[in-house]
Amino acid sequence: MTGQAPAIILGIETSCDETAAAIVMRDESGRGTIRSNVVRSQLDEHAAFGGVVPELAARAHVEWLDHIIAQAVDEAGIDLSDIDAVAATAGPGLIGGVLVGLTTGKALAAALGKRLIAVNHLEAHALTARLTDGIKFPYLMLLVSGGHSQFVLVRGVGDYQRWGGTIDDALGEAFDKVAKLLSLGHPGGPEVERIARDGDARRFKFPRPLLREARLDFSFSGLKTAVRLQAEAIAPLTRQDVADIAASFQAAVTEIVATRSRQALQRLQAEWPDMAPQLVVAGGVAANRSIAAALAAVAEDMGVRLVVPPIALCTDNGAMVAWAGAERLALGAGNGLDVAARPRWPLDMPDMKVSEDAA
Ligand code: KG4
Ligand code: ZN
To answer: Over 194-214, what HEC string results?
Structure first.
């Protein structure tokens, strides 16, 4: 929307294992500028457990969030009282962490007398490409992270249609589990990708679950099981075995993601024949070069504009939350201090529609 007053938004993100805060400005023409974006990852806290421990995550958010917010305000060169609204992730995610961020956001909004905006974490991922690339609606989003794997048609702020998701593990989770069973480090995605470079992707033919079906859903748990059985069958594993398994696994998921994306884009072209088709990729798995290259090839082949925000904005961060808040604020949205934290919050719920209940 154009013609809005400029706004300065504080964004707070605590739904998983990143404690993050950012200051984003939105000008009257609708363009966003990131003034600061501070992320503290909790990798060290969780490393020994091979995954995120919710209770530890919540404690670390409590310990660090105030500092991270202060740093974000400081790096932006503003005063806390300069902000126009506080946007905080209200779900979906690990509920202890979400409560820490949302409660802090409420306290700040109340103390400063500013608007509170409760942000859906998935919406924040979905709208990031508008901050980074000014992309216009509608577009298709492929979100592939540690917690989510889904196609979402983004028609407008608060106006989403979920076209498919995972029926078991998220893609990042599959990378993490495969890394764990190959005794690689956590998070597993980068580790699998690194060692796969030295491997032979054709040595093992892993299954491509669901791929023959027309639905736009993913399934990765059968693939993970196939990887485990293969690893057990040839144990003890040499470094080369690990590299070959990693490469073969990565080839399987790359083919799955590329094929599904092609199908989703065909549906987009069929439903919106007059629109120039656009695909936005979000989530940490967007960093994977094999998957990114396959998506680029599909987009090029189909004449689709592909937008992949810088990886620091694909993974969890405060700027995306601030920006989602800015987009909602521009439409007059706001939330009361009674808004609840939610462990589950699908994007296509009616309550995603922009409401002006606190306006
Ligand atoms: O978006 P993100 O930072 O956090 C959330 O899950 O919200 O995504 C993290 C996930 C992890 O599962 C991690 O293993 C995966 O993204 N990931 C990758 C790569 N880098 C991160 N997966 C495959 N290849 C990578 N290079
Ligand atoms: Zn995320």
So the answer is: HHHCCCCCCCCCCCCCCCCCC
Ligand 1 centre to CA of 145 (Å) is 5
Over residues 204-251, the pLDDT tens digits come to 999 999 998 999 999 999 999 999 999 999 999 999 999 999 999 999
Q: Which structural domains are found in the chain, ordered by start?
A: 7-133+313-352 (3.30.420.40), 139-312 (3.30.420.40)
From ligand 2's centre to the CA of 21, what distance in Å?
Answer: 14
Strand partners, 306: 279
pLDDT in tens, 79-104: 999 999 999 999 999 999 999 999 99
Which residue, among 258, 256, 253, 248, has the nearest Cα to 296 in the 3D structure?
Answer: 258
Task: Count Cβ neighbours within 10 Å for each residue of 15-33 and write b for 16 or more, e otherwise.
Answer: bbbbbbbbbbbbeeeeebe
175's tokens: 């990378």
- For ligand 1, residues with CB inside 6 Å are 16, 145-147, 172-173, 175-176, 187-190, 193, 283-285, 287-288, 315-316
Q: CA-CA distance, 166 to 220, in Å (whole number)?
A: 8
